[in-house]
Amino acid sequence: MGEGRRSVGRDGARAWVSELQPGTEVDESYVVRSRDVRQRRGGGPYLALTLGDRTGEVTALVWENVDALGKVLEVGAVAAVTGQVQRYNQRLQVVVRRAAPVPENEVDESLYVRSSSVDPDVLWQRLEGLVEGVDNQHLRQLLFRILADPGVAARLRVAPAARSMHHAFRSGLLEHTVSMATIGRQMARHYDLDESLVVAGCVLHDLGKIWELDVSPSIEYTDDGRLLGHLTLEVLHVDRIIAEMPSFPDELRRHLLHLLLAHHGEYEYGSPRRPKTPEALLVHVVDLLDSKMAGMIEAINADGDPDQAWSPYSRILDRFIYRRRPSNDT
Amino acid sequence: MGEGRRSVGRDGARAWVSELQPGTEVDESYVVRSRDVRQRRGGGPYLALTLGDRTGEVTALVWENVDALGKVLEVGAVAAVTGQVQRYNQRLQVVVRRAAPVPENEVDESLYVRSSSVDPDVLWQRLEGLVEGVDNQHLRQLLFRILADPGVAARLRVAPAARSMHHAFRSGLLEHTVSMATIGRQMARHYDLDESLVVAGCVLHDLGKIWELDVSPSIEYTDDGRLLGHLTLEVLHVDRIIAEMPSFPDELRRHLLHLLLAHHGEYEYGSPRRPKTPEALLVHVVDLLDSKMAGMIEAINADGDPDQAWSPYSRILDRFIYRRRPSNDT
Amino acid sequence: MGEGRRSVGRDGARAWVSELQPGTEVDESYVVRSRDVRQRRGGGPYLALTLGDRTGEVTALVWENVDALGKVLEVGAVAAVTGQVQRYNQRLQVVVRRAAPVPENEVDESLYVRSSSVDPDVLWQRLEGLVEGVDNQHLRQLLFRILADPGVAARLRVAPAARSMHHAFRSGLLEHTVSMATIGRQMARHYDLDESLVVAGCVLHDLGKIWELDVSPSIEYTDDGRLLGHLTLEVLHVDRIIAEMPSFPDELRRHLLHLLLAHHGEYEYGSPRRPKTPEALLVHVVDLLDSKMAGMIEAINADGDPDQAWSPYSRILDRFIYRRRPSNDT
Amino acid sequence: MGEGRRSVGRDGARAWVSELQPGTEVDESYVVRSRDVRQRRGGGPYLALTLGDRTGEVTALVWENVDALGKVLEVGAVAAVTGQVQRYNQRLQVVVRRAAPVPENEVDESLYVRSSSVDPDVLWQRLEGLVEGVDNQHLRQLLFRILADPGVAARLRVAPAARSMHHAFRSGLLEHTVSMATIGRQMARHYDLDESLVVAGCVLHDLGKIWELDVSPSIEYTDDGRLLGHLTLEVLHVDRIIAEMPSFPDELRRHLLHLLLAHHGEYEYGSPRRPKTPEALLVHVVDLLDSKMAGMIEAINADGDPDQAWSPYSRILDRFIYRRRPSNDT
Amino acid sequence: MGEGRRSVGRDGARAWVSELQPGTEVDESYVVRSRDVRQRRGGGPYLALTLGDRTGEVTALVWENVDALGKVLEVGAVAAVTGQVQRYNQRLQVVVRRAAPVPENEVDESLYVRSSSVDPDVLWQRLEGLVEGVDNQHLRQLLFRILADPGVAARLRVAPAARSMHHAFRSGLLEHTVSMATIGRQMARHYDLDESLVVAGCVLHDLGKIWELDVSPSIEYTDDGRLLGHLTLEVLHVDRIIAEMPSFPDELRRHLLHLLLAHHGEYEYGSPRRPKTPEALLVHVVDLLDSKMAGMIEAINADGDPDQAWSPYSRILDRFIYRRRPSNDT
Amino acid sequence: MGEGRRSVGRDGARAWVSELQPGTEVDESYVVRSRDVRQRRGGGPYLALTLGDRTGEVTALVWENVDALGKVLEVGAVAAVTGQVQRYNQRLQVVVRRAAPVPENEVDESLYVRSSSVDPDVLWQRLEGLVEGVDNQHLRQLLFRILADPGVAARLRVAPAARSMHHAFRSGLLEHTVSMATIGRQMARHYDLDESLVVAGCVLHDLGKIWELDVSPSIEYTDDGRLLGHLTLEVLHVDRIIAEMPSFPDELRRHLLHLLLAHHGEYEYGSPRRPKTPEALLVHVVDLLDSKMAGMIEAINADGDPDQAWSPYSRILDRFIYRRRPSNDT
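^ Those are the sequences you sent over. The predicted structure of the assembly is below.
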């Protein structure tokens, strides 16, 4: 460890990727997200890696001892890494000197995967609470039947809501779903609409994303996701479950499927229908609000100097976000 | 009064314009909204009028006694009219046989002007309640200072929110403002945003419409409305009032003006700024929701057969609206 | 019958609506498409009707004998009508003097409904021939299973392809389907693509229209049509039939559903997916070609003077169409 | 040549650029497409080259013996190159150790230039066959007159159809032209249109590209291409040739020029006219189909792992393309 | 002539169509622009005419003496008309009682055709002055050669610049051309551009409209206009004349044709090229300015109450225009 | 200094950044615009700098003597630099060997800041001349009052007109303003519009940019710029000054504010109003012309080989610009 330099990790607080500083020594465990063997100009190979934890990613380089370290640093592995943080072309990189494997049974996965800031168990309880509050018995039973399927539940607990836009992290879909259903219900009361339909629409509107996206090792589209899309995937699934419920009213099925088909709001956003009922309009606008708001808050919290008035450029919103708020007491 | 024909008005319930039926006799008071003297094909003049009450408008014709009836049926006057309802080219018209002036002191104006379904006094109380709940003292004082101006208050109580789109009726702006501030505050809590800013933004976002539109005898744009627009009118007004409050923080002024400048959301809707703070995004989306929802509910309630599954075509939303909702108990 | 005026109908060729001339007497049978009782300016009712046959529609008026003729001229009835053709405001109208009912068993429906110029039996044979030529056994069996359903077959034989655009007539959907599958197969060969997929995609791409549109008495959208749309209706149906075929390959199901989901080509045309395989691209472009070509040919053949170089304005194509072609022998 | 490393080229199959693998030794001839002298960080120059053959391009570096090798490796020269293939930043590069000139008379140009997969002589024969089949004598003579011009023929045999989109290779324009005329004629028969016009429109629709693009050493726009564009260039040329044919009917000239002016279909694609005849619509849609289909098939065949379900991202189509097709026998 | 009613025409100032008032007697000569024989409801024909002079058009009806008056009131004829001005459905109409032919040699055509407010001889002189000021001898000779063609000159003197937008009147194209060349030259000096090119571009940019539009009896598109368009028509013509000038520099031809091809500025306005030189940009912007300014000034001067602050709705500009200007002396 | 290499700077003409050539030695003073300390691959730091003068910017590297030179080469400092110009990846870079501070009192700032090619004193005189020529006394006094404010004048003399588009240099706003007012006045005369309004609109239309942009050390948006925008900033300022002029006519204020609010022309360009008077239309079009023309001329003069027919790609105009003009004498 270098003299006179601040060293981070192991001895106290964890050295989160988002908090690395140029010039410091680091001694911490990270997951290997990508790995490339390259040729040095002078000949001989070196390793270019992406290391990460749940707070972000950083480039890392191995100049020496390439063969030995390469065996430790496989994609998907968690390794204890010692090295120096440097700045190169405005970005940080870690020059790795040593690396040791972390035994699988010692790995706390929650440290390495970006995840909702709310515990998925808490989110799941809130979701169940919202479903229990659905007055319409057909819709309530439909929702419970869908959530009771272990295959659905397992995926829904961890699925992200997107590959790279808002809520693009573990359990992001659940967080988005619960937030939408909560405010959807409030708004349905305000406008005196059918609460059961609105809550059911919010809960199911992105369900298809559990089949549209694969999350391991990184978030990628599935073949079904690209060729059919989450909207059709959930419409097919919901319709299949309804077919198993003989007393489910046809009028209700039509309205519920319409909520799913119209939740993108406008044709140019891949919406095969536009909202034609107040409930469909509400589900669409609440989705829009929750997505954009998440994108804005993520931009405000993104890496960059938090003292600066403006966030880094947000690609989703195509703008910079202003971070200053007036203090309530002045 | 014709034998064998149903006669409406005077004897019991009022004969609202929206409830006139072809083939009936009518005997009721209406306001004259337009008047044209035309030539009959066979020579000689006749009168073509628009009669109305708060439920709608109907064409009326005077074929005989034109000179005498013409003196009674001036634009803006309220007259008791006797005649027959006919259907012509798919539309109703009243052939007027007799007309008598209604003395001004007997006129109940609320019968003739389309108006919010909520009493403006109730709306005003809600507005004051929302303002009282604003924590930030600068914003609370600013709002009270603006609402305390009798010229502003008088116009705000009666102004419509639009000429022909959503909330295009007496006190429509107040109804829209109170609805937005109510749900804006709920959403601000949900997302942990600055409630004071959001409520202030909702209250002031369309204030300029009190100078943009003139309401008498019909809703029309003013010169200021067309050349400057409500957005600039309210920015100029709010900035002038803030200039009278020496301790008003500059940071707060900048943020508040941004909320007003960005509330249309996108450049193509005449928004000189796009929302760059979560509060500005929220004010914009809540405005969008409340406007479209009002348009949808107005379409559902619009004239046409209420038993039909589909509303008349809604020009604002460019679609037909589905009227059927599932019953909660089935 | 007027002296010196050309009289049409009954005595020889039928007096098609599209061939009526101002100033002639008419004596022919038509179907009543709409009927309105209106008030004359001088008092007393008259009838305003729309009469039609498969070549078009014309306004008709009954000034006298209103009660008696009104009983004959109900909406949906076929009546033998005697009267005079006049021109009013650039449009033709028939002043009806006499009307007699045509007994139902004497009505040849094909005279009154606009229909494909090709016999539906011939079209159906061509469709079966195309399906028999499908090499892939799963797809061939799927298509036969769908077409073997009497409910589907009965609707598909008569359904139009649209409410008011191209192929908006009886059996228009069948004509469009057969045309598309024919050239789709040719193009698939040219580009060495999977013929079976392309033919199946063409046959099924608009199947949902048999539930999207009702054809009697005029072409109107159903509730399912407006709320779910033909694209989703056919995807749900095809998926349900595939679920009954256990050996149907999953890869094939995914590809086929993608063809249906992507056949509108671009998001802004309500396409929830864009074509991501050459077969999907081909089905989309062939649909585009056949629809626009039909619109253009319908415009060229539309009413108006066939000697004129330019067609009436085509609303579908938003332009006038040039009718002159060079003669091959000059 | 390194021990234990696979060596490619010279000894058996050619070492095509598209098949180079990191870590192998290469000994093969390539054309030099670009050359840059750069400074090493430690001082002294090195060469950065682009080497290519008809299958693609690869970066190459000369670190030593720069002066001598630089004389061999001039832009446009073909050289026999010995060196090592490395991977750098996800891309391959060749570190060149030796280079020797290949005598011009030993150069087989077809190895180095990307070209249509069909022999241009075969394409030219097909083109002549299509022209011979044109019934309309004026159009047939016009086409032969244009193709008989040696300047036109020489350019048309080798011109690409684009700089970087579909058919952007030697003889790509000819391939595109023949493909379009072939299916254009089939479709003209299907819709009973004027075959002669359609074939003539297909043959001439991109003729101007022979003056719009220069192909040596890389495909670039000419001044005429940028300032006038291929559409105007071909309209001017065709009109000039027609002016030499006194009996050419004016009606035919107008229609033919319209086909050329309207073949981009919509104003926003730089089309000064939109198609106003069925023949013009057909030429436009067939152009669209053949261009997009070529783009899709090029993406499917593009470099990348052919076993992967998805192609590399296609910039032309703005999407990934699915490579899997169902097997006909399953 | 009716007692007590104001009578207009013949006795003093002309009774211009734009100045007719409801209720007055009229005795004046007009041109017949359209004529329709219609059936009265009670039977028997009547005439519906459009009468006009250079200030506008008015509907006219002949109820009696239809046969005799019909012979006088043929389309294109000028007739002295006596009748009464009435208001019907918010529009004026003239009920004609008498009509007499005006001998052709007594007809002053300039009274009946809407025309530029500037004498075409004056406009032509200005045009020649602008051409004489062109320094570049090739361009100057080209322009004189084109204007010297009697066929071109005769059409250019009277052609409108559009069918229904700006400058849609006799000599409107000449007025627009001279205005553009005048300010184009000023702007070319301001930005130190090539004046000769700019003036030539302005003079020729809409020349093709003399073949695109026919002016008699009303302004309509020609077949060449619809199928080829004015832009291509003028490019073909200018290129043909340049071909007759052997010493005309190729560079100059390319630049000049580019000015014509790019003058619509953007692809979506049917511009096959976008401006790629400062001179091309200038010609485009000056065209835009002169067209929109003319549209705005025409709206300000349009019929409607000139005392009103706002013009009638301008379809070209999609807005109302404000008519009030501040007085310079206040 | 290398033998046989051309050395530039100090000895005669200045070595402007825009004229540096690869391979030469340089000995000249530049301002340091950015500075980054980076790690060499082999370990140890080096400096990556941006050096500039008013003609452009160039990357510079310090490989040795990093500590000592780093103290001289601070951001904002002017230093005399000795080193070698190299080419790396198609771009130039200077490898710095020596650097010495230039004493502040010897720094001629005009050498280092990109600036209008016209002296700001001359531009200011022209501006005052234009204001003196304003006939309308209210507008003239308003303009003088605004320009007399030392805070405004100081900023207006140096402000750029944009951050990265046209006129993005010192005094660029003044240059743009004077150019626009000059041609705005000419055009106002041509169309007989209110010259005073047009000149006032041109002078004030971008005034808010003096608060929207900060110029030191590089051009960046202010918080007010991003949240309120120059359009609103100038409307608020102008309205505040008018409020101090009691006799300023209300009609004139409304019209003038409209000119500012509408100068972006269309909603999608962030214009809260569209031009509704000829004067507003003129200010908008003249702004468009002057901005685009400046962008085009800047592209023509941009770095790159001036002998080449085409400019480097212009991001503002999204195209390449043709540099060749015909010579007037040929």
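Chains A and E do not touch (no CB pair under 8 Å). Residues 1-8 of chain A have pLDDT under 50 and may be disordered.

Shout if you want it in another format.
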